[in-house]
Amino acid sequence: MADFRYDKATWCPGCGDFSVLAALQQVCVRMGLEPEDVVCVSGIGCSGKISQHFGSYGFHTLHGRSLPTAQGVKMANQDLTVIAAGGDGDGYGIGVGHFIHACRRNVDITYIVMDNHIYGLTTGQASPTSKKGHKTKTSPAGVGEEPLKPLELAIVSGASFVAQAFSGELKQMQNIIEAAMKHKGFSLVNVFSPCVTFNRVNTYEWFKEHIVNLDEEEGYDPTDKYNAMKRIAETESVCTGILYREERPAWHEYVLGATETGTVKQTLDITPADAAGLIDQFRR
Ligand code: SF4
């Protein structure tokens, strides 16, 4: 059986990111994937360490840049299962431009955001998803802005799979991550992943009290975009489950054709002498 354990995670005891790593490892085994079939591309922050702790190929990129790197990996080799991962500061702050374009581009990757509503690695500053009024080191009088709404932003930007999970509900998170990885196209899994050290407001208990599980809502239809937007707004974005999904061709199917496997599998119709000449031109 494949083993996706690599090294001992160094997150604080109780950090929600442990559950995300465990869910991802278990789903990969459940799907029969081998470590060499999978690439995990992460950004900067506590959550960015996931590419080091996960026993697949890994790429720890620059701040906010996991999505362009992950899309490039998938465009180059369609045979790989590509996971992009990061936190709310990384993905919805400096990386938010990439996020919007990844949603509309629909490259077949899964983006897991460990959303703890704070910057953890830099010891507790307000992040794009910090709630209005939250007092932090950078907002001693309380955050003055409305929080960024990643689920709504993903849907209006054209994401074809939008889900939300909670680190305190491992089984549901596994099912959501598996569905996201099987989805053809860009899938967002925003995970409430509490920072037990620097966010004393949005704790496991806080999420348990506030979460509305739409997977348990009878008759909830995730293909109904307008109802998805309505329920997300009604629950003030504290809902979990597969919130929206849509079948449409992924980027490579639309642009390259369904049988195209990406540039790494293409044979170059040039001689070694031609290749040497090309390299020589770049040297000049
Ligand atoms: Fe997790 Fe917060 Fe510790 Fe970072 S600082 S490892 S987010 S608990």
TrEMBL record:
Keywords: Iron, Iron-sulfur, Magnesium, Metal-binding, Oxidoreductase, Thiamine pyrophosphate. The keyword Cell cycle does not apply. Its cofactor is thiamine diphosphate; Mg(2+); [4Fe-4S] cluster. It holds the Pfam family TPP_enzyme_C. SUPFAM superfamilies: Thiamin diphosphate-binding fold (THDP-binding). InterPro entries: 2-oxoacid:Fd_oxidoreductase (IPR051457), OFOB (IPR011896), PFO_beta_C (IPR032686), THDP-binding (IPR029061), TPP_enzyme_TPP-bd (IPR011766). Residues 195-254 form the Pyruvate ferredoxin oxidoreductase beta subunit C-terminal domain. Residues 45-191 form the Thiamine pyrophosphate enzyme TPP-binding domain. It comes from the Bacteria. NCBIfam families: PorB_KorB. This is 2-oxoacid:ferredoxin oxidoreductase subunit beta. It comes from Tumebacillus lacus. The lineage of its organism: Bacteria, Bacillati, Bacillota, Bacilli, Bacillales.
